[in-house]
Automatic annotation (TrEMBL):
InterPro entries: GDSL, GDSL_Est/Lipase, Lipase_GDSL_AS, SGNH_hydro_sf, SGNH_plant_lipase-like. The keyword Amino-acid biosynthesis does not apply. It comes from Hibiscus syriacus (Rose of Sharon). One of its GO terms (biological process) is lipid catabolic process. One of its GO terms (molecular function) is lipase activity. Pfam families: Lipase_GDSL. Keywords: Hydrolase, Lipid degradation, Lipid metabolism, Signal. Residues 1-25 form the signal peptide. It comes from the Eukaryota. Belongs to the 'GDSL' lipolytic enzyme family. This is GDSL esterase/lipase 6. The lineage of its organism: Eukaryota, Viridiplantae, Streptophyta, Embryophyta, Tracheophyta. PANTHER family: GDSL ESTERASE_LIPASE 6, GDSL LIPASE/ACYLHYDROLASE FAMILY PROTEIN (AFU_ORTHOLOGUE AFUA_4G14700).
Amino acid sequence: MEKRKRKLQAHLLIFLIVFINLSLCRDVPAVFIFGDSVFDAGNNRVSKNCSVQADFPPYGSAFFHHPTGRFTNGRTVADFISQFIGIGMQQPFLEAQMAVMNDSRKGYPSNGINFATAGSGVLPGTNKDLVFLIHGMSQGVTSIQEQLRQFQTLVDQKEINKSTVERSLFFLESGSNDIFNYFLPFDPPTLDPDAYVQAMIKEVSNIIDQIYNAGARRIAVFSLGPVGCVPARALLPGAPINRCYGKMNVMVKKYNKALENLVNDIPTRHTGANAVYGAVYDTVQHFRAIPTRYGFSDVSSACCGDGPLGGQLQCGKEGYKICQNPEGYLFWDYFHPTQHTYKLISKALWGGKQSRIRPINLKTLANLTQNFLA
């Protein structure tokens, strides 16, 4: 009898723990996402006139089993964090907009919207040559400034409830394309590296101001990863193959440091706002330092591509080669991580210590009550 009682108590305790964990994030109804190909869930796929695409196999092969427009073999950080919160993955804005316009759905999704578009940067001019005029309207890469305008329009038109905005999480990640493009040989920059980084930070500051003014109170800003280590550096004249591109990573680290300072100032500049800085650069470099601990057999080359490091041909293009075990690779294609890498990063951001995300992690940010957000 006593043994049965203890067993019943143990089961009750497990139930309570599960119930508490499931109810912890009940106050986060949605996630709104702004950024580049690290977060893009298919906006470029809808915009067929954009040349930056991942709408063909073997993209999406690990989880969705078909291409979704995500620039990886499965889910992204935004997808995993939504799973941890307990809400569905966010639909790309252009896809949702098309459904509303076609009357196939009555309103925009209640669990948030993904505005991120591959190829964009924090500087308005980044990859502007990938935007085309079709019948007088610009189509293609959507700048992060335009992503904010898309969101603001939905708020102004009351397509998104203001109270939902205030309770939601906001994700911002951008800048990799700006810095990589700085080193392209056919478009030499007019600014020195420090001035270029400062111009980027100024834009990010304006973006954060706009997000806050639109009602955001829980803001997560993610650092850039080690851009100088992506396999696509093989495309750049003079970039080393046997090690990361040091000059590029120096710029990345300067940008990340200024970005963290900016994030730290958000609660002071904006009443009621809570902000966190995700140290993605340090997290990825940690994986690279001790790869086998995290299941990696290769942290340098792309699983899918061709040429040195698999970095001279996009995955899925004619002539590409693919590895047998994507789970063992840090990089999926010449720019982007595998689903396995994204999952590890997501876990670090969700429940990690201050070496991974600060001053609090995403789980704590998600669990802040309205009293803390007022």
